[in-house]
Amino acid sequence: MSHLLTKEQLWDEHKMDWAGCEECPLHKTRKNIVLGEGDLDANFLFVGEAPGEKEDQTGRPFVGRAGKRLRKAIKKAKFKRFFISNVVSCRPPDNRKPTQGEVSRCGLRFRQLVEIIEPKIVIVLGKSAGEAIFMRFPSIKRIRGNLMRTYIGRNQYTIVPTFHPSYVLRSHDEEVAELFENDLILAKKALKSAT
Ligand code: SF4
User: Fold this and answer.
1) Spatial distance between the Cα atoms of 87 and 128, rounded to a whole number of angstroms
2) To the nearest whole number, what is the mean pLDDT of the chain?
């Protein structure tokens, strides 16, 4: 994407554009919009379903228990330039799954984010995030370990599907944790073939 503004300027504009958004019913119950955080020159974009309670309180993505699990795996795999966000920016009440309408209303914001960052690899955390991007998405157990390709906005991206870190925690299954960490290594390998 060629543009006259720097990524920092585009990001500042993006934050201003979406501050106070009332495009979907989730604005009624949220405390904070959680747009995402990380390196604007990120090679990797991690994308989950929606903010949870801690994220809603702090305005930061993946800072609760699941977020700590994700950040631990990111650290272990030694990711350098990454960004973290969600397909929906406001917390659904009681952490319910966002509706199709909410996902679709927040889709413009998500596509704008991707177009600002232009990551090389998008790591999809969980089926719900996958459904928001692909519409139809198989279970993570079936699809993980494979690379996918799809358009987000104007450009095509390599997608690495993996478990949501909250599932990794909930499962108490070392094999799931190992597969999750292997998927992050797959993402790093995919970057090498993408560059
Ligand atoms: S979830 Fe997205 S579309 Fe809905 S109010 Fe929040 S920022 Fe706006």
Assistant:
1) 9
2) 95
Domains detected in the chain: 7-190 (3.40.470.10)
Q: Which residues form ligand 1's pocket by a CB distance below 6 Å? A: 18, 21-24, 26-27, 33, 88-90, 102, 105-106, 109
120/137 Cα distance (integer angstroms): 21
Q: How far is the CA of 118 from the centre of ligand 1 (A)?
A: 21
Nearest ligand 1 atom, CA 35: 7
13-34: average pLDDT: 97
pLDDT confidence tier of residue 3, bands split at 50, 70 and 90? low
User: Which of 136, 187, 195, 135 has its CA nearest to residue 161?
Assistant: 187
**Contact yes or no for 66/164 (Cβ under 8 A):** yes
Residues with Cβ < 8 Å from 85, sequence gap 6 or more? 34, 35, 36, 37, 45, 46, 47, 48, 61, 110, 113
1 pLDDT higher than 70: no
Q: What is the pTM of this model?
A: 0.95
